[in-house]
Amino acid sequence: MIEITLSKRYARALLELAEDKGLVSEYFASIKALDLLLKENPNLKMALENPFFDLTQRLNVVVTIAQKLNFDQTLTNFVKYLTKKVRMSLFAEITQAFQQLHFKKLGALEARVITSKKMDESFYSQITQILEKKTSKKVNCLVEVNPEVLGGVSVVLDGKVYDGTVLSDLNRLESRLKNLATL
What we know:
Blueprint: H1 2-21, H2 24-40, H3 42-49, H4 55-68, H5 73-84, H6 91-106, E1 109-115, H7 121-135, E2 139-145, E3 152-157, E4 160-165, H8 166-181
Parallel strand pairs: 1-2
Antiparallel strand pairs: 1-3, 3-4
Helix pairs in contact: 1-2, 1-6, 2-6, 4-5
């Protein structure tokens, strides 16, 4: 609970800085890139999060990453601050909260699209277009891969679940068969 509150505070502060500079989209793209980098490199994530590693070395790593990802000084300082305060473990949550706050200000919606495997980008574009047409709002799709759904697609949008997965079909079939067995 405390982590969620902290993440939202950091995200709100970063969003305000980005709005002041008129760089909200750029900051969002940058923190998404860093979030992806940390997810793909767990050792890097661990090194930045671990206070037992030398702070100067961790900050040098942050500066190097920031240069490679073309961060401006404000965003670099933000990530350095998180590193100093041993808050890099919250980075994924901060990124997600930043996105939610930004979309809320735009009046946009966020949808979770769950498939059994990573699909082609055109698939997600089609889903986004359908949802935008249905809601008459901008929709941002967060892709989630879950092999347990077996096939099909599930969409969570504005608190509603639209489930067209094989797993949900099998669960419904199982429920019907159990109901028949009790008759």
